[in-house]
């Protein structure tokens, strides 16, 4: 475990040096950290030796998920949700639960997991991640409604899936350990902390007695996040729901605080993401990949190519989206970075089926990262009307359109 920090530093430096190339090609920094973790871990070289019982695994998973949910929540204030709710509402209100149920059915009937464990797998694999669709969200050639849909959905569904993960994990732990009253109190307390702390902090800064300097302004969001984390720890409120609620509260009531912290916060969340991916990869081994059997791998393929597409197709019936847009939305799911951390949390939870659930989740996430993070550029080019085409092709198309009455007479030479 002592080699973890130097290993992360070396891989991070390599990722930075290759980041420009990754933005233009199918090379993926997420895949780089996953593969590096596997190669450096017990699955290959054994330089980074980790077990699920190691404290660093649980601590890193907790901090990574907190940072990701806080930054996700900050991307979507209530005003953003109200202004752009029609299409994301379909994806979140119908697509998320349908993806969960279809994935759970596959885990139950194909892999043979009990319904509690299967529903837990569905909840873990339901969220999407904006990192895996970055080329679409940041491409001006992609229709704005599609970019907005992917951006809002990926920013909200981690937090929406969280209560289901917590509930199904408690159910999978056994009826003796399931206390719905305590679980509800933990979730409610997390929401209260997540709303109250940033709201009070923002209102204090808006008084005449307090004002953050330009130099310290980006630290405002960090201080709010740390205070939410500390209070959640002290009161046993749900840390992750508190983080998500805090992010939304900052985005809603503190536009200036949101803008000043946005870039800084994304960098912090990205560091935790990459570190968790390295640890996740180090926990993967050839015996684990083989132990799921052909049914586990078939489930992973079906989760990628059927679960989310079926859910999206049903959710966006008569929505006005083109087939190309629906295909792009359907492809970038159902696994996000939160799935990685949810899987690590389950692995360290101590439930009887923790290893079985983790194995199924792990192979699905591995396929997702390798496929989704390396195809975002390819899918984005579907919408690039300026990509190079033969001159005769453009001329032929214009002649065809004019013949159909679709274009005015040409104003210049063909």
UniProtKB/TrEMBL annotation:
GO cellular component: plasma membrane
The species this protein was found in: Acrocarpospora corrugata
Key words of the record: Antiport, Cell membrane, Ion transport, Membrane, Transmembrane, Transmembrane helix, Transport
Cellular localisation: Cell membrane
Pfam families in UniProt: Na_H_Exchanger (PF00999)
Membrane-crossing residue ranges in chain numbering: 32-50, 57-74, 94-111, 118-139, 159-176, 183-202, 222-250, 271-290, 296-317, 329-351, 357-379
UniProt name for this protein: Peptidase
GO function terms (MF aspect): antiporter activity
Membrane topology (UniProt): Multi-pass membrane protein
Residues of the Cation/H+ exchanger transmembrane domain: 13-375
Taxonomy, superkingdom: Bacteria
Ligase in keyword set: no
UniProt-listed GO biological process terms: proton transmembrane transport
Taxonomic lineage from the root: Bacteria, Bacillati, Actinomycetota, Actinomycetes, Streptosporangiales
